Structure formats: C-alpha cells, structure tokens
From TrEMBL:
UniProt keyword list: Pyridoxal phosphate
Organism: Solihabitans fulvus
Protein name in UniProt: Threonine aldolase
Species lineage: Bacteria, Bacillati, Actinomycetota, Actinomycetes, Pseudonocardiales
Entry's Gene Ontology molecular function annotations: L-allo-threonine aldolase activity
Listed GO biological process terms: glycine biosynthetic process; L-threonine catabolic process
Amino acid sequence: MVENTRQRRVAAMRTSERMLSGSRLPTMREQLAVLAERAELDGLPDFYGDGPVAVLEERVAELLGTEAAVFFPTGTMAQQVALRYGAERSGNPTVALHPLGHQEQHELRAYADLSGLRSVWPTTALRNPTAEEIAAIGEPVSSVVIELPLRDAGFVLPTWDELVAVAKASRDIGARLHLDGARIWDSTPYLEHSLSEIAGLADSVYVSFYKTLGGLSGAALAGTGELASYARAWRHRHGGLVFQQWPAALMALAGLENELPRVPELAWHARTVAAALAALPGVRVHPEVPHTHDFQLWLPHPAKVLGDTVLELAEETGTWFVSGWQDAGPPGWAVAEVRVNAPALDWTAEDVTEFGTKFLDRAAELSKRQAE
C-alpha cells in the first residue's frame, strides 16, 4: 500500500500541468539529455578528481572568492572534514552548532561519532545565533557553524549586519567560522551581497550541488589552500575519492549556469506566493515574508489528510499544490515546506488564492469523512 501510494504521487507529480511547490521529477533519460548538451562530453572523463571535477572546483572557488574548493560526494562528508580541520588546528574538539542545524538533525551527529567532537548550542531559538550569544558561549570552541539559511527553522537568514557581527564575534573568541551553505545560493537576494562577499566572512564554506542547482549529487568544501590539501587527504580516508564522478560534475556545472541566475526571481516570487497563502483563512506561513524561495506552510489539519488532498486534486485537476506534510505544533496542525521553483513563476496571487481555497475546502471535507 505504501509503495502504491508513492507510485501514485510520483505519477501525479509528473503528469501535473501546474505546480505551486517543487519541480517535476526528471527521468534518468531526461537528465542524460542535459548531460548530452555539455561540450565537455567530447573530452576524457575524470580520474580520481581531475578533468570535469577539477573544472567544477575551480568554478566554485571563483564564485565564492576562495583560494580553493574540493569536490565531495556528500555534504555530510564535507562538513565532517571542515569541523575536524578546525578541531585539529586548535586542539579543541568543541564546536558551536544550532540544535536544528544539519549536523544535528540530518547527519546522525557524524561529527561526534566519527570524529570525536562535541557540541555546544549558543541558542535554541528558531534562528541562527547572534554575535552576543556567541560571545557568551562560556568555553572555547574551535568552530562556529552558521547554516545559511537555517532550513529546519523555516529557511531563515540573519541580516547582513548580523552576519558580519557573528563573523567578528567568532574571531574574537578564537574560533573559525564555518558556513553550512548547502543553500547559500538562495541567500544572496535577502542578504543583498554576492556569494563571494558572504563567503569572505567565513573560514570555510560547504555548498551543495543538488539543492537549488538541480544536480545529481555532490558538494564542495571551499576555503584556503591549506584547508583544501587537508580536505583532499581526509576525503580519501573517508572513502570519498571516487574513480569517476563526471556525471555529477557536469550536472553541477549546468546548474551553476542555468539555475543559479534564476534565484533572485524565485526569491521575489516566493513573497507573492506566501502573501497569497497567508491571506487564506486558518493559514500560517513562516517566516511571514520569506527570506529565500523556500518557506514553511502551516495548516490546521492532520498531515495524512493534507497529503491525501494533494494527491486527489492532482489526479483530478492536473495541479500539484504542496507536499511533504508532517504533523507538528499544536494537535491537529501540520507543516510542509513550500519550494517556489520555476513552475511556480506562472502562478499569480489570484491563482494561489483560487486553488488554495479549493485545497482547503477539499481538506475540510476529507478530514470530516476520515473522522466519521
């Protein structure tokens, strides 16, 4: 039954003519077609990190304004290496993290179990720590981690001035500043500064190639040449020096060329979508004005009801609303992440209001039927 439901969802997403949140799942053939357009296919593949992988590393270092960047097969591996580097250079195994950060929530605390590090939490608030909270940590730390944006808090960002102050506070307590920048690509419109200016505040930056950019997989760790040399050695030790990764590298390069320039337009349109949703009865969005083209949508119905409603309406109308609902907050409420990607650019505020109303009416009907 679970597999059948998943298959129905995938089929409904792929056949939907309109999508408010997310993107249609491309087939492997469609992704191969993207690769086929790359001129690099006429050259030799990479062998343990040269060729197109090296080209990608150079491009990322150029965008971020760093001395070097190192390709990793996963962000989890890259982040472990970044924190280990800071701990070994300082002789201090303690790192400052947010409890909702990726290392704590989505990496099975690899920094602790594999690298022997420990964490302190400067804050538990639904935002990144402030400069004052970093200054008040009360014990030495080797690295301060700031996630841009902080996904599990609602894709929230500090202001530019707050980020500058955090960088200074980190230096003042003798710590490195590491940016968990899986979605740093999305941060430039809100921060009103370039990628290189943002990365220039930090000692190291991790970026993802499949988040926002639509790549197959992969990540990069950027910083000094010394960090890069260290990262290459530890990537090998972690088993991340893969024989050939040219498909991932070429898709990442395509994403940097084709998807990255769309980010400002998506970010501004997300504000239109969020405002229209927030005006509907019983609806909450967080943050009220999105910081990126992702934000949280809260509705007063159980997650199963909302998931079933999405599927029913998609199959009936060919329109995909918002998926990934999870029960959270007060009883009877659920939350989902709205991702305003290219398919949503065709939606006006009136379109969002019209279909959102239809969605809420159907959810109320379905909730009543399932309760009987």
